[in-house]
Design brief:
single chain; 343 residues; mainly alpha; 13 helices
Length: 343
Amino acid sequence: MFFLFQHGQEAAATTGHAPAATEHAAAAAGHAAESGGHEMPAVVQWVNSWAGPPLHEFQVHYTKPLWDKFFSMFGTTAENVFGHYTVENAVPWYTVMFALAVLFTLALVWIMKPRKLSVDEPSYSQMTLEAGILAVRNLLTDNVGPHGMKYFPVIATFGLLILVSNLMGLVPGLMAPSAATSVTFALGVSSFVYYNAIGIKENGLVGHLKHFAGPIPWLAVLMFPIEMVSNLVRPMSLGIRLFGNLFGDEQILGTIGNLATGMFAWLGNATGIPIPAGPWLLPALIMPLSLFVAFMQTFIFVLLSILYISEVSHHHEEGHHGHEGEHASTVEDGGVMTLPEHA
C-alpha cells in the first residue's frame, strides 16, 4: 500500500508533467521487477518464451483493466505499481522460482526418506530427517503442548519450503523466491489464516474473538482494538522480516561480487598475472553468513508461527493421555526418533 500513497502524492505534486512522471515511475517499477538488477535466470526466460505470449494477451485484455480501475482510486496505474506488461515478465521470476522450490522440496524429501527405518544402524538421511523432526517437535511441545504435534505437518512444511527457498539464492542460475515480497507476504498470510482457523475451530468464533479482549474485563475495551490491530499486522511483519533479510543478503552478495570482479581485474592488469578465480573468493568467504541467514530466518518464521498457534490452541485434559501416548510412541529406545507410519 505504501506504493499507492507514494505514487498518489507524486501525481498530485507533478501536475502538468504527468507523462514524464508516469514514464519515470514505470521505468523505476520495471527496474524493481528485475529484483535489484539481477540478470533474469535462464529458466524464467525459457518459461516466458512459450507461456509468455498467451498470458500477456490475457493480462492486457482482462486483468490490467481491473487493476487500473482499482489503482485509479489512489492516483496511479497498474504499470506504475507492477511495472511494464511485457511478454518477458508475463510469468514473474518469483513465480517460477517458487514453483521450483516446491519441486525441490518434494524431491529432497523423497531422496532423503529412508527406504528402511533402523534404530541400530540409521542411515545419514534418516538421522538428518530425525534431527529436523525433533527440532520442530520440541518447539511444538514446548510452546503449544503435547497436543501440538497435530500441527506438525503444516509447520514442518513451512520450515522445509522456506529453507529451500532461502538456499536457492546461493545456487548459480537461480534466485531466492523468498527475496520477493509477493512470496513472503503469501507465506505470512498462509500462517495468519492457519492459526486463526485453528483458534476458530477449537474455541468457536466468539471464543476466538473473546481472547483478544484479555483476562481483565474492565480493560477489554482498551485491549480488544490493540490486540486486533496487532493480530492483523502479523502477516505483514512476517513477510517484511523474511523479505528484508533475504533481499538484503542477495544485494550484499551481488555488491561484493561486483567489487571483487573489479578489484581482481585491476590487480591482474597491474601485475600482469590473471586471477580467474579471484571474483569468487570474496563471495565464497561470506557464504557461511548467507547460510546462517537462510537457516535463522527459517527458524524465526517457524517459531513465530508456533507461538501464534500457542495463543489460540489450548490443551484439553480429556485428550491429554491419548496425545501423550501417541507422542511417546515415536521415540524408540536410546532416544532415537523414528518417522511415524500413516495408514
